[in-house]
Design a protein that fits this description.
Layout lengths: L1 E5 L5 H10 L3 E3 L18 H4 L31 E3 L1 E5 L5 E2 L5 E2 L6 E8 L12 H15 L5 E3 L3 E4 L2 E11 L2 E8 L17 H13 L4 H11 L7 E4 L2 E4 L4 E2 L5 E3 L2 E3 L4
Length: about 270
């Protein structure tokens, strides 16, 4: 998997969505059995992956060794990139959160997006619950590092009763764009920061390695279902209203049953 670190961008999510809409993303053929779907490159330059000239930024280089003058703008490249592909920015100026809210962030936080070919996802994954799936995998990566993070339904990351991040997804054509925001160094009012120290480069690599495993939805959902109990003291936004989660039933496809209606959340 190509994973690029850039100095600054408007929005990693918007950038990849626009690339897909323009037909500037292609997916390679699925690997034969026994081969990893994703392989993290150690030397990927912006000029190679995104058509940018200048210094090379790669997950093997610490941000302190990267060219700080290298910025990436959403309309800067007409070159094709190949999925699976990851992009994270040291600074994001126009991040988008759930329900199209602005995501307030500062340098030092994680701003990460992946573009994946739908046919390479777990075969039992309901795309309507992709954000749940990837949020929980990311939560497991953080927990393995010692964090007390948990997943609030459907796709928010919490420490105790404060939000520290979230996950959203967009399906465009045959691709799925997954984006994660995590408060590592800065949190807006009424939010919190991650409870452990992490190196962004290592965190992105570890998450990418988990994606390589292509874990089944069933395996992830069994764990998520247990953790869902913590969400019952909260509410879920649906059509501009707050739905109390202690009054719903969590279904096996990740939807919730409320007043005999199934509610899906593709964010």
């Amino acid at each position: 998997m190509q994973i690029i670190c850039v100095e600054k961008i408007d929005s990693t999510h918007s950038f990849l969505c626009k690339k897909v809409r323009k037909g500037e993303v292609k997916g390679y053929l699925k690997q034969s059995e026994g081969e990893a779907l994703c392989e993290i490159s150690s030397q990927i330059g912006l000029e190679d992956a995104l058509g940018q000239g200048g210094a090379k930024n790669s997950p093997s280089q610490s941000p302190s060794n990267q060219n700080k003058n290298e910025n990436l703008h959403e309309n800067s490249s007409q070159n094709t990139i190949e999925a699976p592909f990851g992009l994270y920015a040291l600074e994001q100026t126009s991040g988008v959160g759930s329900r199209d809210n602005a995501w307030q962030s500062k340098r030092g936080n994680l701003h990460l997006s992946f573009c994946l070919k739908c046919e390479h996802l777990a075969s039992d994954l309901p795309l309507s619950s992709a954000s749940i799936y990837f949020a929980f995998i990311f939560k497991e990566v953080l927990a393995a590092k010692g964090s007390a993070v948990w997943c609030k339904y459907p796709n928010d990351l919490y420490i105790n009763d404060k939000k520290i991040g979230g996950v959203m997804s967009s399906k465009i054509n045959d691709f799925l764009i997954i984006s994660l925001g995590l408060n590592v160094k800065f949190a807006p009012p009424n939010a919190a920061i991650l409870d452990i120290s992490v190196n962004l480069e290592d965190l992105v690599k570890d998450f990418a390695k988990e994606l390589e495993k292509n874990l089944s939805w069933k395996e992830i959902f069994e764990k998520y279902m247990v953790e869902f109990q913590k969400s019952k003291m909260y509410s879920f936004h649906y059509k501009g209203k707050e739905v109390p989660l202690n009054s719903v039933l969590l279904c096996d496809d990740g939807s919730i049953l409320y007043q005999n209606k199934r509610i899906y959340s593709l964010r």
